[in-house]
Amino acid sequence: MSNPAANPGGSSSGFGSQGVGLSNTIHSEVAPYLPLPSLPVFCGAYDPELRLFDDRGGGDLWYLNRNEIVAQSARIASMLGDTDVSYLHLRNDVRPMSLDNVVPLELHDQILRRNPEAYEHPTHALENKPVHVEPSNLVPPKVQNGNDQQSRQSSSTPNDTDSSMRKPKGKRKGSVAPVSVEVSDPSELEPSDPSELQDATIRNFCDILEEFCGKAEVANDERDEVDWLALPASDIRFLVNEIMLLRGKKLLHLVPLEALVRLLQILDHQIHRAEGISIDQLDHSGSDAVSYVFSALESIHAALAVMAHNSMPKQLYKEELIERILEFSKHQILGILSAYDPAFRALHKPNEPEAYEGDENEDPEADYCRSGKRRRVQKSVKLKKSAYNKVNSAMNTILQKLCTIIGLLKDLLSIERLSDSCILQLVKTSFTTLVVDNVQLLQLKAMSLLCGIFLSYTQHRSYIVDELVQLLWKLPVSKRALRSYHLPDEDQKQIQMVTALLIQLVHSSANLPEALRHATTGHSILEVSLDATYISKCHEAITETCCLFWTRVLQRFTAVKAQDSAELKLLMENLVTDLLTTLNLPEYPASALILEVLCVLLLQNAGLKSKDVSARSMAIDLLGMIATSLKHDSVSCRQEKFWILQALDSEDDVGCSFPKDACCVCLDRRVGKALFMCQGCNRLFHSDCTGGRECEANQNWHCQICLCKKQLMVLQSFCNMQCKDNGRANRYGSAKSFETANMVTKIEIIQQTLLNFLQDSVSADDMHQFIGWFYMCLWYKDDSKSEQRLTYDITRLKSNLVVRDSGTSHSMLTRDSMKKITLALGQNSSFARGFDKILHMLLASLRENSPVIRAKALRAVSIIVETDPEVLRDKSVQLAVEGRFCDSAISVREAALELVGRHIASHPDVGLQYFEKVAERIKDTGVSVRKRAIKIIRDMCTSNANFTQFTTACIEIISRVSDDESSIQDLVCKTFFELWFQEPSGVQTTFSGDGSSVPLEVAKKTEQIVEMLRRMANNHLLVTVVKRNLALDFFPQSAKAVGINPMSLASVRKRCELMCKCILERILQVEEMNNTEEEVQTLPYVLALHSFCVVDPTLCVPSSDPSQFVVTLQPYLKTQVDNRVVAQFLESIIFIIDSVLPLIRKLTSSIVEELEQDLKQMIGRHSFLTVVHACIKCLCTLSKVSGKGASVIEFLIQDLKNALKEDTVDYATYTANIKRKRPTPRKKPGRGAPASQDMYDDDDANLTGGSAVRKRTTPRKRIGRTLADDMDDDDDYDDADWMGGGRRLTGSSTRGNRSAGRQR
Description:
Elements: H1 27-30, H2 67-70, H3 73-81, H4 106-114, E1 131-133, H5 146-154, H6 160-165, E2 179-181, H7 186-189, H8 194-216, E3 217-220, E4 225-228, H9 233-248, H10 257-273, H11 287-307, H12 319-340, H13 342-348, H14 371-376, H15 378-413, H16 420-433, H17 440-456, H18 461-474, E5 485-486, E6 494-495, H19 497-508, H20 514-517, H21 522-526, H22 534-559, H23 562-582, H24 590-602, H25 613-639, H26 643-649, E7 675-677, E8 684-686, H27 687-690, H28 704-726, H29 735-741, H30 746-760, H31 767-782, H32 790-797, H33 799-802, H34 815-826, H35 830-833, H36 835-845, H37 851-867, H38 875-884, H39 890-901, H40 908-920, H41 927-943, H42 950-958, H43 966-981, H44 1000-1014, H45 1020-1031, H46 1037-1042, H47 1046-1072, H48 1078-1095, H49 1108-1113, H50 1124-1140, H51 1149-1165, H52 1169-1186, H53 1189-1207, H54 1211-1221, H55 1243-1246, E9 1253-1254, H56 1259-1272, E10 1288-1289, H57 1295-1303
Parallel strand pairs: 9-10
Antiparallel strand pairs: 1-2, 3-4, 5-6, 7-8
Helix pairs in contact: 3-4, 8-9, 8-10, 9-11, 10-11, 10-12, 11-15, 12-13, 12-15, 12-16, 15-17, 16-17, 17-19, 18-22, 22-24, 22-31, 23-24, 23-25, 25-36, 25-37, 28-30, 28-32, 30-34, 36-37, 37-39, 39-41, 40-41, 41-43, 42-44, 44-47, 44-48, 45-48, 47-48, 48-50, 50-52, 51-52, 52-53, 52-56, 53-56
Organism: Linum tenue
Pfam families: Cohesin_HEAT
Region (Disordered): 126-196, 352-372, 1220-1304
């Protein structure tokens, strides 16, 4: 990457463009944090179709032996020939590699044929030509003019080989001519012995130091002292490159101490010269000041590069120099923050002018203003614009250099113990960067530095946590908080910087042993000496850090005023949201533990048990969010079909159950895709599903499970062998118990896949090692046998050092696969198991006295149920929710019903479980509750075709058709319209196989009506429903204003006619069954037909055969049975016939005569007065229709006379008896008087078939009186009469029994 040089002369040409270059920053440091695209290695090619390794998800595109890749070998050879890779120092890091399993690469051979030197390591500096050393690098800046300075800025930095092999002539204090070093043969200058090469490198570096120091020192003969000259930044940068080169060779500690001390002294003076100068003072300072700043920054870089190297002498670490470095770095960081964030500048430097704007009152980009205004300010903008660009470029350069300095400061922390004042200053400065925008890279470096302090300086952990809490309160309060930390995820998710810092601090608190961190071989891992309880103590340290953070946060929440608590609650919700975002991502295991500790605190006195209502309310909201996420992860894991997880869950061996002819990953059986077999478990896989290559199909290839299993077995054998050799088995028990504890389990295999993934995800700050160690601490705590195999568990963390070549070609799993594995492993953690406890406490909060808390808890339970409605089937949840059905607050009762009603359609079993309690709420005092209960029951009926409580549901709903609230009446009628009377859309008309002309769908609805009536006392309510549905008067007022659609009215009427026809058919079918209780089985059908006939008798007069219903029902009048059920049955039939007769234009004489004869016989023999009354009324109607009114009246009078003669009772006495027996009107009992049973012994009570039985002393006279009344009001209809079951006479219906009654 570019490394822009500073311009001491102040010329803008030295700064180049405004783009941010990342000097001394490798790609691996930036890529994990920034949304950088995945650039392919062929990005410089002209042909866009050339693809190398870029698309791993596209099958075999990354396989280099493909024809389209080999065809580009000439272009690749040309690219390699023009590429200088000397900066990679490949020769310094040569490691032997096993080539046994390497596939022959045809592309490699083709490139060599095109260009045999394509893979050579070019060393242009050692060619047979002189090496020119620019004099500007050897001359002090006071001797040079501006042109020399400008040429020095534009000159290229000598490469590393030039600087390491150059031998300066001596000290130079003035302008010197260019020096040429003639190199005849590079091989002659390179010593063959490595020790000689090392000595030569150190001597060259010492010569460079001598030359550098000579330029900075000037002897003062008058004071016999040395004066210090200001060095240009380019000279110091050249020295920095030489130091970094020697650091890379790990030879810096071999440089003589005197030379290093002298160097640091000169660098100290360069820093001291620039103290108090900041880059944001550019408009108020000269060019020398800017040069001093850049020189000081380069000097800090050089000094830290020396001191941050391992094994350096202690004499180098002078506290004064370190403090000056920290102070100057802090000053420059604050200047950078002020420049990048105007809000920060206004807060910290309110009196300074805006130096970076084009004018005092104008925006720097004034070009976008109106044309007239642009002309007026054009001159001032032009004068300021160059300075603006210059400062921007300078700030970018300083920002990059500060990032490098912070990285070196972190390295210094692990080498030299700094004073507490230095540490506190570093902490303060690092936290300051996190409150500013647009400096993400600086923030990442500051976070890394804080983690280093947190790891190395445990005594300051409490202070760092306090500062983190203070930072949390400084964040902007918004639901859409600034989230600038990019997660390494395909979805490019982001979280807040403060959340990322918290997670990294918790990772650092795991106390990863330094020996284990720097171990490079398997034997060095075994040499790590740890106590058996060390990992347990590490887990305690992690928990302590989490507790400390959340305790501080919750204490701050309880201490603030009520108006500020809402803002702090929002900040905590943002923090919890970020933690839930990172939950179950393989790189952030700390998120689960941080949330777990928060849940523990919220379940105690800091949350649900707090006396503060706001604290309890906040705890419920946060616990609801966390529990919802846990339940979502549980459902996702349960539904996941990932092959590794299925192997983990299976009870048999990992290789037993798998498809025999399909890929185990995608389960695809297509013949076109090649399958290759794992040699360990015989599973079949596609190459693109596992990251393998087709050329490995015939080799010794192993899947990831078998690979990890084999890897663990090797580690087990290695540890057992080493422990036996060194006698370590006795430290953790006997050798036998050690071997028993080291049995490879399936959970260990899955865990090892995650550890392997982390080992391959190498990070510059070793964060992957901290993450792996964090996982080991979590797993170690949950494993009861962990203490017996400590060495084995530690070795698993760096298995790649022990198992370098397992004899197989590794097939790396994708990141998406690792996320699934992490999710599955997370289900075994204590945090995931805590869901039941959280849910239990939320359910307990439903019984709180405060309605606010109850509403909050119900809302929290609702979002959990939204994730998994099966939670409602839990008995404890059911009891808690049903308890809220009876809450004192109407809103809570309605919310509880809403909780259940939302999931009725998707989970019918849940509706059935809650049906009884929901049905009770249909009589609730709250109108909204009753409405919601009706809607829920309606949804239960419509969503489940096999709902077993359908009839009960209809009875409960129809009971509210007479509700006091008209809106509920309309809702009930609309509900039955949707259930029964609405024409279904898109349903094909089908008929039953018994020859019926009624569609099956209508027949089914009719049976539902009949079943409802079978369990009802009467059909009054059904009459109301049918009446309103035929009129469709329950629609909203807006629909009524427009007008009811005539098509809808006709459709409802047609369905009612079909229902009546279906009922008639069912009556005949019941008769054909020859049931002994025919009337009992037929009664519900007759009552249903009765209901339709009451509303509209024309429904029972089909146009094709108007007399069909009369002819069909007339034979039932011949029944000889005399009981209450039959009385109700006959009364309904008689009413139907009576209603239909006037609508029939012409009746055959035979029907009229037979019907007349049956009615007359029933008048004489039936003992229920309501039936007799119905017969007389129907007989009168028949007489009108047939024109035989006089004969019918004559028959009735004659029958009355005969009865009076046979009774031989004085008429006066009979009249007196009639007056005495006449029932009195029913009256309400007076206050305090008991209600008499006779109150209910009138006709209205008898209509239901439950009448009281009274003696009949003068029946004929009673009949005569009733008949006279009916003759006057022949067409009147009394609802209390047609329901049957009237007063029954004691004794037989024969004449002899009547006489016996009179004698008594």
